[in-house]
Known about the structure:
Elements lengths: L1 H20 L11 E3 L1 E2 L6 E5 L10 E5 L5 E9 L8 E9 L3 E3 L7 E7 L14 H4 L9 E3 L4 H8 L7 E6 L7 E5 L2 H4 L4 E5 L28 H7 L4 E11 L5 E10 L9 E6 L2 E2 L9 E2 H6 L23 E3 L10 E3 L2 E6 L6 E10 L6 E6 L4 E3 L20 H31 L4
Parallel strand pairs: 1-7, 3-8
Antiparallel strand pairs: 2-4, 4-5, 5-6, 6-8, 9-11, 10-13, 11-12, 12-22, 13-21, 14-19, 14-20, 14-22, 14-23, 15-16, 15-17, 15-21, 18-19
Amino acid sequence: MLRKKRLGLLLLAAILLFCTSVPAMADEGGEPIEISRFDLLEQTSSVINQGEDLPAFPQQITGYDSAENHYTLALTWSSDDYADVPGEYLFTAALSGGYTFAADLEAPTLLLTVVSVGRQAPTDRSALSASNQSLGTLSATSTVDTSLTDEEIVQMLVGENVIPFNISITGDASGIQRGVFSSAGDVLGIDSGVILSTGDARTTFSNTLMETGNYISTSLSEPGDADLQSHVGASATHDAAVIEFDFIPQTSLLSFDYVFASTEWDQDVNDAFALYVNGENRALLPTGSIISIEKILTDSQLPWPWYDSTSSSLAPQSQGYFVNTEQAGYFNFTGRSVLLTCTATVAVGELTHVKLVIADIDDRILDSALFIRANSIVTVVDVPTENVLPAIPLTGDTTSSAGFFAIAFCLVGLGFLVVGIRVRYLHQRRAEPAN
């Protein structure tokens, strides 16, 4: 009898312990349980082609009430303005099963972008050149740090003879559009430096996007840049990232090394970058064209956009100023420019204003980024060509005026020398005594 009582007490204690350790479930017909916070979603955006079915949105999330009890919550998604036409559509999640979000808690959202140009997962593209397949790969050691201050970012850019002041970096208030990258030399040709992105720079290096056929895309709802918009001739710019500073040049030529990368090579949009020195853009291709998706491709004798939805074999080759990086691994941009150098003549000792800006053109999706070599913004001595004396031609057509006068000058000089020697000789003969 005593043993049965003890077993009963132990069973009752176990039941009480179980009941207190399991969060309460929503009562049917009762007040819904209020969720005060939830774990962030890993997926916050998605891209589909026009005519495709909606993607598989996240179906559940972990939420917590004010007492920190946790619940696995089912999600339903809806949009007030979704239509199967190109554009951006915001979907908002709602809770089911007797749960609700607290009044001061914003529900999860997901940005869906519908595009008119077909896309194909990088792993399905078959016509990759040998140079693409042999391109170096990155590893988990490649990183982007966005925690630095604006001053630290700019100090990472400049060399010893450039002392920046009046520093300003604009973009997303959280600072995720700019940062410092490292260990990227195998795929970028630049080991470390500063990144400026039209999206979240922290998503540059990973193995979760390209391997699954997804594209690096962050819509930040940030403004564009009027200077770049006018310069490119675009109807609109979005999500601009801008670095500005002043300095006093010690020598007459400003220089730095950079790479432009993007995921929009297969789109008829034209993300771009510019470097303004005292209001004049000096970032140009060797052809004299601006730094944009269109010009990097067309000046390399490649089509723009380069992807034809009717042919999966039209993947671009590394050619001219374009490098395909779809097979690089751990790098989420599908292509980049070759390593470029920007130069600009500056006035020694005078205040000089520098502005670097990159932005999405026309739409807010599919990111582009600028990678600037660490400490490469420097000034060097520029020797103007007009101050260099031309060499006298020793071969070729000597009947030109320059060659004629040079030869005539030499002959006249030789004549004077011969006459001088002859006069001296006669003078010495007259001075000799007769025998």
